[in-house]
Write a structure and sequence with these properties.
Length: 93
């Protein structure tokens, strides 16, 4: 029987750690990505994903990991923060 992925989380200082247990495939990669992104705050110092207990990871799961890595690159975080600041300023006017 398949075990759909479950995420166990804990914090290490300002860094969320997500342990993924079970299988990651195209049926759950998108909601899993949403869950992982939801762990991040503007004070997070990164994101640790423990795949030790993951029993299966298909190409959609690998794509998710690469997408998260790209989103969390410092220059991309700076661009996002700049866009959010500009948006807030426009809303206040």
């Amino acid at each position: 029987m398949r075990q759909i992925a479950q995420v166990m989380t804990e914090m290490h200082g300002l860094t969320p750690v997500a342990r993924i247990e079970g299988e990651v495939d195209m049926s759950n990669a998108r909601p899993l990505g949403d869950r992982l992104r939801g762990l991040l705050t503007n004070r997070s110092e990164g994101l640790v994903i423990d795949l030790g207990p993951t029993t299966y990871l298909d190409s959609s799961g690998i794509t998710l990991l690469f997408a998260l890595a790209e989103e969390l690159r410092p220059e991309n975080v700076q661009k996002m923060m700049h866009k959010l600041t500009a948006l807030k300023l426009r809303k206040k006017r």
